[in-house]
């Protein structure tokens, strides 16, 4: 399954924000939120809540709600893109999302 929010509703700005251990997601219909813990490249999302407005196309929300609890790691693709990875092939790609941790180059020591 694949959903690109800008393809679902190009007139609406979607967002995924991180701040002080909390996260928020604004999709083309509903909003989601909860808590996250970041340790190195490991990340977990807990206490996920969502609004439940009825919308014509809820594909983005359904995928985010299905994938987010399965996310285990985060990779910095570059300074403006991060990838939230699961143990399967599913992932969430975030572009130009605020992120508190500076991305390291692949060969840079920890």
In short:
The protein has helices at residues 5-8, 59-67; strands spanning 15-19, 22-26, 31-39, 42-50, 71-78, 81-86, 91-95.
Helix content: 10-25%
Low-confidence stretches: none
| Strands in their spatial order, largest beta sheet | 1-2-3-4
Give the overall shape, derived from the CA principal axes.
globular
Mean pLDDT: 80
What is the chain-wise order of helices and strands? HEEEEHEEE
Give the end-to-end Cα distance, rounded to a whole number of Å: 35 Å
Description:
This protein has helices at residues 5-8, 59-67; strands at 15-19, 22-26, 31-39, 42-50, 71-78, 81-86, 91-95. Strands 1-2-3-4 form a four-stranded antiparallel β-sheet, with no helix packed on it. It has a three-stranded antiparallel β-sheet with strand order 5-6-7, with no helix packed on it. It has two helices and seven strands, in the order αββββαβββ. The termini are far apart. With 110 residues, it is mostly beta strands.
Secondary structure layout plus pairing:
Elements: H1 5-8, E1 15-19, E2 22-26, E3 31-39, E4 42-50, H2 59-67, E5 71-78, E6 81-86, E7 91-95
Antiparallel strand pairs: 1-2, 2-3, 3-4, 5-6, 6-7
């Amino acid at each position: 399954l694949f959903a690109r929010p800008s393809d679902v509703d190009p007139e609406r700005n979607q967002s995924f924000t991180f701040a002080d251990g909390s996260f928020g997601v604004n999709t083309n219909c509903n909003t989601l939120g909860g808590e996250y813990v970041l340790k190195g490249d490991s990340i977990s999302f807990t206490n996920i809540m969502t609004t439940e407005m009825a919308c014509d196309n809820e594909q983005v929300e359904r995928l985010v709600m299905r994938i987010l609890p399965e996310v285990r790691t985060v990779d910095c693709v570059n300074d403006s893109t991060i990838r939230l990875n699961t143990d399967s092939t599913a992932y969430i790609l975030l572009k130009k999302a605020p992120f508190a941790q500076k991305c390291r180059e692949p060969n840079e020591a920890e």
